[in-house]
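Running this now, will post back.
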Amino acid sequence: MKKAKVLLCLAAVLSLLCSTVLAHELAKPVRWSIMVRNRYTMRVNYNQLSSNSPYRSAIGTAMSAWNNPSQSLKVQCFYDSSISTSTVDIVTVSSDNTWKNLGFDPSADAMTRLTDTNNYSFTSVQGATSSTGKIKYASVFVHPNDGRDMDDEQRQVTLAHEIGHCWGLGHAPYSTDSIMISPYLERIKCKLYSHDINDIRNFYGTP
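Update: finished.
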């Protein structure tokens, strides 16, 4: 009986350790594949947001959340003014019907669609198992309401969260402080938490 209890305790400890170390994957592990100067790099464009979208003022802060710890992470985001060279495009969906026809969750504020190196496209919540696992392009679609029912910080968190999906991160559990919690909780700010930093290091290594 004592031996069984010891084994159960060891299993519980190992489970706890694994849950704090292992990254939260999509249905199949996917990774951003484009590197510039030894860092995985996204070139982000938002020309396809509606002209008066309040998300426009949130993008800089959302990207900075991923760039601030650049000395310890091997990922970076840059603004790209041209959709011909951008690798991540942020787009306002024109109507509720279009959102529905795209197959997106009607309760979601934004959805990310990833495209792999074989030009196979899938959303960050389904379809990953048929991909190459190497992502070369992503579209972040924002709901037709353009985030007008949110405050500035919530819009920043929304975009930073979707960029996390572009990197291949799945959703984190509610009990964890993470930019990848969904739905977003009031305690979550537009920054990377230790959970997110550890996940990105596990995914991509360190510089």
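Confidence is low (pLDDT under 50) at residues 1-22. More later if anyone needs it.
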